Amino acid sequence: MKGSNFLKENNARFLWHPMTSPEDSLTIPPKIITESSGVCIQDVDGHRVVDAVGGLWNVNLGYSCQPIKAAIAAQLDKLPYYSTFRGTTNDVAIELSYELAEFFAEDGVSRAFYTSGGSDSVETALRLARQYHKLRGESGRTKFLSLKKGYHGTHMGGASVNGNANFREAYEPLLPGCFHIPAPYPYRNPFNETDPEQLAQMCIQALVDEINFQGASTIAAFIMEPILGAGGVIVPHESFAPRVQEICNEHGILFITDEVITAYGRTGAWSGARLWGLKPDMMCTAKAITNGYFPFGAVMLGERMVEVFEDNTAAKIGHGYTYSGHPVGAAAALACLAETKRLNVIDNAAARGTQLYKGCLALQKKYSLIGDVRGGRGLMTAMELVSDPDSKTPLDPKTSAVIQDATYRAGAMVRVSGPNLIMSPALVITDNDIDTLLTALDAGFKAA
Q: Are residues 262 and 372 in the same domain?
């Protein structure tokens, strides 16, 4: 392994980083993470911090989950790769599909289509939605509806249903036929409505209006995150998602939950669908399915999909990935699922999530730069940073960077995305770790 000087000198010379500009990576060098254990990471200079980002929403069980590491190593010795394309499969992919069907039975999804990650899962769901309607003789249903502020990955379809211009503008024109409704986001919305329940009803009415305008017979699916993650941890009122599904069902529109972040316990429930009492037609999962140790994902399919695709010779799925059902990924997922259930991580996610949320509310009283605190449903928490709490003017990026860096130096890695400081630590984090994180945040805001 090359030394620290080599790594620092070449950090961004030959590597383009996602979600930033090559120039930014050169002028503001990224942290070089070289080691990890438990819920902590260590950089090339030996500085060790609590990872409040949880990798990227995905390291739910921390960095020292030995059963997953052992499963990966054993599978590499047994069968490091084989395709699940027509005519072949592998044993671990089969076993995993059985376990996933059992795990998600309460959500009404029972079949798995494997992918390489979250963006792939979204793309798969969008494609299968169109095929579903064609198989039913409704080929005019090609449009998609989604929420502004929602995030659905970076593929062309996912970027098209994304509700954040940052992931769209540079790549337009995108997929035609994608339309967005306001998110139930009390801090900022076009209705100037701060009551979450009233706002939910207004957004639902906007959805009904859009369906009527477009024509229900032209719409394939509605896709949403049960809790909007990258958009700033926007937690809808509990009435919102169930009513959205009812409206979709009334109009023959497929309902897709994007659970790349929310599945496998992050919300304090085993899935975002279960959190709100939903029965999605498709559920997109990835990230925590392998604890981030191997790129892998699964789209889980509900009864409407099963009825149309199974026992139908016309339902050939002309879609898939080289690594769909990768045996090493499937082995990692099997071990991860078993450990996730054994640890019953939803209890700790709920308890530690409440601790973190309340701690951030206390910081809000102390620092006027914190305009809004969102969370309270598991380990998903965000603080929206503003230069003026009355006008809600977003904090300038330089000051946000100061807060982030000072927090890191004080002992915690947090993520700043636009005006939002977002935290999604491992679900096995302890109360002492949360205290360390909150103390580091306090130091970060003091430095601003």
A: no
